# Entry
Amino acid sequence: MSVQVSTRSTTTNRHGWRHATQRVVAIIPAHNEQATLPATIRSLLIQTRPPDHIVVASDNSTDATPQIARSWGRKVQLFETRDNRDRKAGALNQVLEWIDEPDDTWVLIVDADSVLSATFIETAIDAARQPDVGAVGGTLVGDGRNGLLGAMQHLEFVRRARGNGRAGGTAHVLTGPVTFIRLGLLREVKTARAEGRLPGSGIYDTSVLTEDFCLTMAVRSLGYRWITPRGCLVSTETMGTLGDLWRQRVRWQRGALQTLRNYGVNSTTLPYILRQVGTVVGLAGVVLMWIAILWWLGTGTLVIHPVWLGVGAVVQLSRLVSGWGSGWGGRFVAGTVLVDLAFDLFIGAVYVSSLVKTLRGSEPEWGTPSVDGLPREVS
# Structure
């Protein structure tokens, strides 16, 4: 049953949009997603406030993705891209240009390997009544698959969500697997790019590796806020191998560096640039710490002082507490010092590799094999 919205939602903000539910159009960009698409569609249909329209944007699919979309009858409409060579960003640009809806329509963009909590849309609409909120992101959780490696990724998501919660729902980046955004804001981004007020072109800039971070910079540059409410949960696919995870995270990091370079140094990008610098400093500190420990062990001069044991115990306890909500798999990772540390070092290595590749201008790594041997884009 749909949730009734109170009359207070008809007020306007300084951008001239009505704070009303209006229509909600869900768009599912899908490239060879026959295995996961049905669950994504079902999660939309059982929403407490279901979308008014669901569109599957099939992009160069060679599997049964189009047939699956058609099998839902009138509940789902299939849109097939034409001559798209720009992957997810290009597919979204095509379907968003095709949609004939007013500016105050909400667009819910959700990846075909993600499943939304039943109250996602209802919670997002309520949260978006806050002044100058143009978009709402999702709180990511792992899909419970892929064993220890999946638990590591799920733990990472839980810790990030915990940080967002302490910041009042403010997140650093609009989530790639799901974004709830005004159609008028997306059109405003396109106009600003055409007028030279923002770098790139189109609604989604196809020249960058990560469309979500690029859209984040655009939204912030235009003066809008976004939030990530706790109730907007989305279960997303975790990478099943270290190779897939490596390629995914290198693309994320390279896309962030690429976007920051395009936007330059200003009040919008400075916090993100400082965060990148902080990552370098933190990584250097960890490396130096381990070099020192290995040196002390090798020379037999390592002395374990009770004070440092206490400090280490407090740090480890805080890491365990921060990941407690991730379930027993995540708690095991958080409680096992070496496993948790190994994942941190892996992410650090991703950062170094991304930085080197960006400086060298090497070609990006986009794809990864998937089930049935069909090529899929790393989300």
